[in-house]
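Expect chain and fold; thus:
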Amino acid sequence: MSIDPHQLVHRVDNGIHAVGFHLDDGGRANQEFVRRFFSTDFLSATADMHILAVDLTGIISLDSSALGPLVQKLRDVQERQGAMALCGVQSPALREIFALTRFDKVFRIFPNQAAAIASLAQTVKTS
């Protein structure tokens, strides 16, 4: 799959990468694109990013094909002395998945991208 730039949002703020998804008028990301992105392109698209906020705003749910790459990326950034945070875990189904898988204990999770970036910036300053 080639990455659709109309579906993916990437910004860099003082060396901190933030990856998220365009939202429709109802505030939802394209769930099929999200699923395919995480299962096929996430790791290669973020390969050079070692300080990363992944914005899950507008995502209703994720399955194992998305959760596995998130864990792989977390290990990668930790091995590279980087940091990773998630934000926008808002839908009840997504929160439940994170609680059941204990991802809410594994990942640093923030309410929004600004909070995640601010925390990652502090991590960078202290390392």
Summary: The chain has one domain: 8-126. The chain has a mean pLDDT of 93.
